[in-house]
Specification:
The termini are far apart. Strands 1, 2, 3, 4, 5, 6, 7, 8, 9 and 10 form a ten-stranded antiparallel beta sheet that branches. This protein has a domain of about 130 residues: Glucose Permease (Domain IIA), CATH 2.70.70. The protein is elongated and about 95 Å long. It is an alpha+beta fold. A hairpin with a 6-residue loop joins β9 and β10.
Amino acid sequence: MRRVVIVVLAAALVVVPPAGAWTWPVKGPVLQKFVLGDDPYAAGQHRGIDIGAPAGATVAAPASGTVTFAGTVPISGRTVTVQTADGYSVTLTHLGSTSARRGLTIGEGAPVGTIGPSGEVEHDVPYVHLGIRRSEDPNGYVDPLRFLPVQPVEPAAPSPAATAAAAPAPPPPAAAPAASAPPAPAASAPTDPPMAGSSHAAGVAAAPVSSTETNEPNTASAR
C-alpha cells in the first residue's frame, strides 16, 4: 500500500499543470513560439516563447516559488529564475531591470523586473523571453503555452480604407431652380383711324362758334 502511495505522488510531481494555472509575465503578443525537436542542440531550436510588451513595463512572476538566480547572463542579458514547488525552473530573460533577489520567496504575479531590452535581442521591439524547464533535466524544456491561460483575442482596428468605404456618401447637391421665362408683352388694342372731318384729325379742338358770327338776325337791334 505504501508503495502505491509513493508511485501516485511521484506521478503527480511530473504531471504538467493544466493551462490557466499560471500567470502571463506581461500582456502582449507572442512574437516567437516554442520550438524543440528530438535533438535539443540542433539549429533552429527555441526553448521558450518571446512576448512583446512596451519598454519599461512591469514583468511578473509566472508562478510562485523561490528566486534561484537574479543577475546578468552574456547572451540573455538580465535574467531572473524562479524555482517552483512542483519542480520547474521558470526563467525570464532580456529584462531591462531586475527587482527580485536570490533566495527571495515570491508569489505568483509578483513583480520581478521590467521589459528591456538587454543582451543579444532577436526582435526589433521590446520583449521578454519566458522559458520553463523541468529542474531535474538540463534539457527538459517544455512549452510555456501549456501552462499559461489563453489570452483573450482583441478585435483588430479597422483599416483606413475600410473606414472610408463604410462612410456614407454625401447627399447630392440641390437642383438649381429653373429659370422663369420673361413675361410676354401685353397685346395693344388696335387704334381706330380718325374719321374724316373730325376735329381730332387736325389734332386740335374745334373752336366754339360765336353768336355774332351766325346768320341769325339780331332781334335786339330790330326793336
